[in-house]
Amino acid sequence: MKNRRIAAALLMGIGAVATGLYVGRAKAQMPPNRMARVLVVAQTNGFEHDSVPDAMAAVYRMGHESRLWETTLRTDTENITKKDLKKGNFKSLNYFDALIFASTTGELDLTDDQKADMMSFIKEDGKGFVGIHAALDTNYKWPEYGEMIGGWFNEHPWGTFNAPIILEDPTFPAVKHFPAAFVKHDEIYQAKEWSRGKVNVLLRLDETKLDFNNPRVHRDDHDFAVAWSKMHGKGRVFYSTLGHTKEAWDDPDIQKMYFEAIKWVLGMTEGRTASHASHY
Predict the structure, then answer these.
(1) Is residue 48 classed as helix, strand or coil in its secondary structure?
(2) Domain 2-150+229-265 falls under CATH 3.40.50
């Protein structure tokens, strides 16, 4: 069923790319004579977002139309291994240059060997990782996953609302197209075991415009990051909570953010990962 939904999304052009999104594309810092290779995984062992096919289709279209990367779409975790499984046309992590979790949820079906291979892929091989929305609601029993992505989901206090957002790093390629302050109708996650001292916050909620008379607010510091960049060993990591709704994937701003984020984790552009204080 999930694979049929993804195929339908691709055929119907869900998450259509805005005109001009790829103008001024960067030259890939990849091995010569080939496009980059991106693996998108969208396994859901918890809540299943309606926007999963939209997110997967958007990543596919971005790579296809820009000719910067080719995309493999999966709703299972079989490819997250460095082992050769000796099956026709099987592609292990050794084939790919970046891994994207598209609103994965729950404890993914990964053996200890697969977990070690995935972390080696990022931390030692220097390959990229992009977490889309519910990628933060994933792998709570795997400590290094939380360390790699930056934390875990801890409720969404305001649900889907008109989120007041502040741009904190106007130099970073994935967010520099945003104005200094703006509003997006989306679901913003609250993170636990997260600290801005361990990441470079790119976007955050404007704490002066939030209602804290809410039992689901658990952060006493009122620091609610919307997107960040970081390193995990040699690998570049990008995460954003934006992309909860299907409509978000029709938003040129959100498409451009993830397009530029993928380029960044692939090493095609440069952007900071050093942490900074809350008021940039």
Answers:
(1) coil
(2) yes
